[in-house]
Amino acid sequence: MSITTEKITKRTTAPFRYDIVGSFLRPQAIKKAREDFAKGEITQAELSVIEDEEIRKLVAKQKEIGLKSVTDGEFRRSYWHLDFFWGFDGIEHTIQEHGYFFHGEETRADSARLSGKLRFTDHPFLAHYRFLKEAAGEDVLARQTIPSPAQLLAELVRGENEKAVDEYYPNREELFEDISKAYHDIILAFYNLGCRNLQLDDCTWGMLCDRDFWSLMAGEGYDVEELKELYLRLNNEAIKDLPSDLTVTTHVCRGNYHSTWASSGGYDSVAEPLLGRENVSAYYLEYDTDRAGDFTPLKEVSGEKLVVLGLVSSKTGALEDKKQIIARINEAARYISLNRLALSPQCGFASTEEGNILTEDEQWKKLRFIKEIAEEIWG
């Protein structure tokens, strides 16, 4: 149990003491339906009916195990990030020569490239959220997860994509402004549908911790300090002047594809801008392996912001050692108040539709395990 003597307050807003990152393993019904749709054997409307049914089941399961903030599992997406990018005006779906290079595996090669000026007018994710909100009911929060503005910029300048940026935005400042504005506008659209819990998923900070990996994304000769400030600016501009009852959090990742990873490195090099100056309410931080470094950077978390410790791996079905997880939470509490900590998996269970290498039963056991530990520590 915890070594703390401080008074623990009950969490009534996101993030909660036991939490999730967002994505869930796709059930077989979803996989088959998407295959049938790709082959032209069912219509988009028929696919949507199956997705609706499986999302309702997923929401019910999340509520059954006691989650206070639920997602649609990203069941309608192929990727955690690209599907969202494709929904903006001025962005097209492309195929690059290579996918992303993970540890021992290469992803599919889909990408997002500019095809005109970037803006938000409408987006399919709004209808997706409307359905989730109805399925969730009034007793839990319906959380919307989207990739961060910084992540969009990173994709738009990746490899051959950068030629399109040069064509449509010879003045990069205009692109930066349009990215933040498009995000700000769509976040307000989610808010108007009732969203009060929005999460920005962001690999850029995790990748910046690994200079060797980031050189593959940003190219040689980039200035890492300039990138940090640019990513911080894009994200903060997108979420400024939002309604006070909208909780915006961020999840920082080092890659999560088919149980593999993309980068290594502790948070030390990005802690000051990310943890000190990004204007979110909480950070979901990957901490399931020593690739994430130690907890010292948590000293940089400013104000009363929270940290959700991703100490439980979503990449494997084996349960961690409970005593070890509790010991690590208490170790983190040396740098930030235990009252400002929570617990979750290190990432989603299926950042892409391939999913990680574990079973659905193991997935749910992981979340029950997290809840058990959280209740023991925080009551």
Helix-strand layout with pairing:
Elements: H1 28-38, H2 44-64, E1 69-70, H3 82-86, E2 89-95, E3 101-102, E4 105-106, E5 110-119, H4 124-136, E6 141-142, E7 144-147, H5 149-156, H6 161-168, H7 172-192, E8 197-202, H8 204-208, H9 211-218, H10 224-239, E9 247-252, H11 271-277, E10 282-286, E11 306-312, H12 322-332, E12 341-345, H13 360-378
Parallel strand pairs: 1-6, 7-8, 8-9, 9-10, 10-11, 11-12
Antiparallel strand pairs: 2-5, 3-4
Helix pairs in contact: 1-2, 2-4, 5-10, 7-10
InterPro entries: Met_Synth_C/arc, UROD/MetE-like_sf
Domain Cobalamin-independent methionine synthase MetE C-terminal/archaeal: 21-79, 278-354
Protein name: Methionine synthase II (Cobalamin-independent)
What's the quick description here?
This protein is of the alpha/beta class and 379 residues long. The protein contains 13 helices and 12 strands. It is globular and about 55 Å long.
Description:
It comes from Anaerocolumna jejuensis DSM 15929. This is Methionine synthase II (Cobalamin-independent). One of its GO terms (molecular function) is zinc ion binding. Residues 21-79, 278-354 form the Cobalamin-independent methionine synthase MetE C-terminal/archaeal domain. InterPro entries: Met_Synth_C/arc (IPR002629), UROD/MetE-like_sf (IPR038071). The protein has 379 residues and is α/β, with parallel strands linked by helices. It has one domain: Alpha-Beta Barrel (TIM Barrel). The protein has helices at 28-38, 44-64, 82-86, 124-136, 149-156, 161-168, 172-192, 204-208, 211-218, 224-239, 271-277, 322-332, 360-378, and strands at 69-70, 89-95, 101-102, 105-106, 110-119, 141-142, 144-147, 197-202, 247-252, 282-286, 306-312, 341-345. The strands form 4 sheets. The protein has a 6-stranded parallel β-sheet with strand order 7-8-9-10-11-12. β11, α12 (322-332) and β12 form a beta-alpha-beta unit. The longest helix is centred in the N-terminal third of the chain and has 21 residues, at 44-64. The relative contact order is 0.15. The mean pLDDT is 94.
